[in-house]
Amino acid sequence: MRTYDLIADLPVRIDDYALEGLEQHVSSQFTRRTTVIHLRGNGEEGHGEDVAWDTIDQQRALQAGAHLPLAGDWTLRSFSEHLAQLDLHSHAPREAVARLYRNWAYESAALDLALRQEGVALHTMLQREPQPLHFVASVRLGEPPSLDPLSCRIEQYPWLRFKLDPTSDWDEQLVSEIAASGAVELIDFKGHYEGSIVEQPAAP
């Protein structure tokens, strides 16, 4: 049995929903914006987050408001099928992947709501034992790149670990300093990204 089949027939009642915009100034060049979907039904509320990178798409979602026909009694499967028939964007997104991010946000909110209404934990539905979950901070190393963005955070939070996106201007010395820090869990090369502000073609 597929993992999805363990949750697909879970019922979910949606009465209404709301959108909440979040933003965090993360560098001098960029403010990160996301949109949280709040699905409500039977006195419970489920959350999902649209994490697409494009600021304009996020702003348009908030401006359009909660106008989608989502109310009703569904299963997670039928709700996903219903979403597939809707255009979740008031304007065509500038990046095609944004459609997937938004779809997943609504599906995540529906899953969260369904679990709360059923009074059951996700790991129980998936027949798994819960395990500790570890998070990392995703940061840029500046221009020109240096270890400073890591060092200043590690000074305040020695336990913090990171995910980094290497760029072509990293040199051997910086790579050695990063390795010596022992604080980097993941390196995301992004070699297959196309049409994205974070793409990084392979460099010899």
Could you characterize what this model shows?
This protein has a three-stranded antiparallel β-sheet with strand order 2-3-4. The radius of gyration is 20 Å and the shape is globular. α2 (76-84) runs antiparallel to α3 (97-118). The chain has six helices and eight strands. Helix content is 31%, strand content 24%. With 204 residues, the chain is α/β, with parallel strands linked by helices.
Main attributes?
single chain, 204 residues, alpha/beta, three-stranded antiparallel β-sheet, three-stranded parallel β-sheet, 6 helices
Kindly name the structural category: alpha/beta
**What is the tally of helical segments?**
6
Mean pLDDT: 92
Order of strands side by side in the largest beta sheet?
A: 2-3-4
| Range of helix content | 25-40%
Gyration radius, to the nearest Å?
A: 20 Å
Q: Secondary structure elements and their pairing?
A:
Elements: E1 11-14, E2 16-27, E3 30-41, E4 44-50, H1 55-64, E5 72-75, H2 76-84, H3 97-118, H4 122-125, E6 137-139, H5 148-156, E7 162-164, H6 172-181, E8 184-187
Parallel strand pairs: 6-7, 7-8
Antiparallel strand pairs: 1-5, 2-3, 3-4
Helix pairs in contact: 2-3
Short description:
This protein is an alpha/beta fold and 204 residues long. Helix content is 31%, strand content 24%.
